[in-house]
Structure formats: C-alpha cells, structure tokens
Amino acid sequence: MHKLSFGALAGAALVLSTVGSAFAHAGISPATAANNATVKAVVTIPHGCDGAATDTVSIKLPEGFVNAKPMAKAGWQIAITKGDYSKAYDNHGTPVTSGALEITWSGGSLPDDQFDEFTIQGQFQGFDAESPALFITTQKCGATEVTWNEIAGPGQNPHTLEHPAPTITVTPAAAGGEHDHMNMGGMDMSAPVTVGNLELTEPFARATLPNQPVGGGYVTITNKGSEADRLVSASSPAAGSVQVHEMKMEGDVMKMRELPDGVEIPAGQSVALSPGGLHLMFMKLNGAFKEGDEVPVTLTFEKAGPVEIKLPVMAASADAPAHDHMKM
C-alpha cells in the first residue's frame, strides 16, 4: 500500500540558511511513530523564500494518517481539503473512507529570519511494515513558492537533499488487530503516544462492576521539553465527564479530591497517574469497563494541546499495565 518511488524531485529555488541543515530544511516531529498511534505531527518552517516572508503553508497528508485535524494559529486562516482514502479505516469502531487530505494555513506572515510550527493531530493506520510517511509541504511567499517533497534514495543521507520532505517513520504495532493490546502472553505492546514535548506511556483502566457509576484511568506523562506543561482537562465518550483526582492521606484518613486546575508536568520530569495517587476519574459511566476492552479518552494540555489515547482495561485489582505482571 505504501510504495514510494525513490529519487529527488525537483523543487523551487530556495536560499539555504548557513546555520546548518537541521535548521535550513523543513522538519517534523516526532521522527518515528507506531502504527495505530495517535500523534501530533508538528511541521517546522525554518525561514522564508529568498528573503520574503511566508504567507501560506500547505501540508499534504500521507495515506494512512486518518481522522486528522489541524491546530488553530492566531492570525492564520485554515482550509481543509477533504476527499476519499484509498481504503476504509477505523474511527472508534466505525469505518471511515474519507477525511482530510491536505491542510492549508494562509493569511499570516512568517518573516524570513523567524521560524514557526504548524500542527496536525491524527492517527496512523494500515502500516503493516516499517514505512516512511511523507508530509509534503509547500510554503508560499507572495509569488514565490517552495515545495519540500524530495525523497532520499536507498543509502542516501536526506540532509544532502535540497528540499527533503518532512517524514515520520511509521513502525508496525503488535500483531493481532488494530486495537489488540494483549499479545505475547498478556504483554501490553501499545506504543508511546507523543504530543508536543510530552510522551504518554503505561495507559490502562480498571474493570468495573455492572452499574458501577465511576471508573479509574491511569497513564504516565513524561515532559521532554524545557518548559513545564499542564494537564488541564479530559473527556471520553465512555463517561458523562472525566475529572483529574488526587488521593492523599490527611491524618490517618485517605481522602480523594478533584484537582480543578489540573496537574503540572514539570520540564524534564515524569508524572504518573496511578492507583492510590493522581488518576483520571470517569464519572457517570455509559457502561461497565470490561477487562480486555479499551477506553478512549482525550487529554488536553495547556501547551501541547489535545491528544486521544486508549486505555486497555485490566482486572479490577490491577495496579499497572499487563506487561508489569508478565511472568516468564
């Protein structure tokens, strides 16, 4: 499905910056992602066009990057070009055959001596082998246009290209189906989810009893950036509301309280939402959390923005994801 014709494609002329190829070329993060992972793809435009300011940025989405939506930017208008995918993909159990194919930001002004980032959230699906996902990017500076679309050939260093396409390498997830997190004798093979400078790992929820009104969800959040961020809210179609809670000893009594201001994620540190401490509380459940199922939840961060993750449902007594309990 993801076959590419390798070789450099001609692009429009662009004066390269002398500060090094990492800053001269349009870039993207994360560099890698797993199939089925929801990611926040951040394309960096490093400078203008031969001295002129950039006023339009268009990003063509690769096949298999689905359910995509752009992040708003102050001073820029967004246009979403939609069309048919080459196959059907999944959106929470519902087949989807069409969606966003290209995102365009226009009407802004990015001076030649500055850089900026353009962000799209989506999910990689259908990558059953390691493959490059190209986010071909065109920047316009008035009448001048630059397209970042070149593809490195076998053994070629992409930094030698004049206009390399921003590329995320997608690796296959665990076998057994798009939403199978319980393979290899119960080991959780789900990959980390990246959003901005944050990495989300170890997600899980506990099974609940029929008619139980609340449920708990857990995840570890690592901030790899140089500035603190904050988890400010959460939501899920599985519950009427989702709150961030803390369990804390007050004297000899363990008490639970909501944290309406969310949780700070300090720069360079990890914060674990885990049983007995910080956690997500799913209120007014729409149905029981059954062991082996998944619970979708959208977490919104102050700087990194929203990201959807899925919590594999463990046993009601579980205190960690399945792989922590795997016995060899």
Automatic annotation (TrEMBL):
SUPFAM superfamilies tied to this protein: DR1885-like metal-binding protein
Q: Which domain of life is it from?
A: Bacteria
Tell me the keywords, alphabetical order. Answer: Signal
Domain YncI copper-binding intervals: 25-170
Pfam families per the record? DUF1775 (PF07987), PCuAC (PF04314)
InterPro entries assigned to the protein according to its UniProt record, in alphabetical order: LpqE-like, Lxx211020-like, PCuAC_sf, UCP037139, YcnI-copper_dom, YcnI-like_sf
The residues the entry assigns to the signal sequence are 1-24
Entry keyword annotation includes Signal:
yes
Q: Is Hydrolase given among the entry's keywords?
A: no
Spell out the PANTHER family in the cross-references: BLR7088 PROTEIN, COPPER CHAPERONE PCU(A)C
Question: This protein is called what?
Answer: Copper chaperone PCu(A)C
